[in-house]
């Protein structure tokens, strides 16, 4: 299913709301990061609802949402979600123990998970065109 996410520029970057899920919000320093966070937030929120026996609502129409006065200045993007626990995927990763120890130390210091650390590093690299020819 695809649900509308509304992106609004603010002092810290972008805030994200979902009209079909008012309790689900997220943000990002850049639009790209906010879009990534929107995918993650909606997937976790929908999965939690389904696990609690709730039925996901029918998605609202983007045109109707953008027609509302309070949404005129916001950017709307459709975010896909399965809501059945398959939006996230586990994978195996092999790296040198020295690098892994550095990552784990950084994660402890900043109170983040290794998965969040790697996601942040991946976003930074993807946004920088590090591997552009």
From TrEMBL:
Q: Which InterPro entries match?
A: HicB-like, TA_system_antitoxin, TTHA1013/TTHA0281-like
Q: Mind telling me which SUPFAM superfamilies this protein's record contains?
A: TTHA1013/TTHA0281-like
| Pfam families, A to Z | HicB_lk_antitox (PF15919)
Q: Where is the HicB-like antitoxin of toxin-antitoxin system domain?
A: 5-122
Superkingdom of source: Bacteria
Q: Which residues form a coiled coil?
A: none
This protein's name: HicB family protein
Q: Which organism is it from?
A: Pseudodesulfovibrio nedwellii
């Amino acid at each position: 299913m695809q649900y509308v996410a509304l992106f609004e520029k603010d002092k810290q970057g972008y805030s994200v709301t979902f009209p079909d899920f008012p309790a689900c919000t997220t943000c990002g320093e850049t639009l790209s990061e906010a879009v990534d966070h929107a995918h993650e937030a909606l997937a976790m929120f929908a999965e939690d609802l389904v696990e609690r026996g709730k039925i996901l609502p029918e998605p609202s129409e983007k045109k109707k949402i953008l027609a509302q006065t309070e949404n005129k200045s916001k950017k709307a993007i459709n975010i896909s979600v399965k809501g059945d626990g398959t939006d996230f995927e586990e994978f195996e990763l092999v790296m040198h123990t020295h690098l892994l120890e550095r990552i784990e130390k950084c994660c402890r210091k900043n109170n983040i998970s290794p998965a969040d650390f790697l996601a942040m590093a991946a976003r930074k690299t993807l946004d920088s065109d590090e591997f552009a020819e």
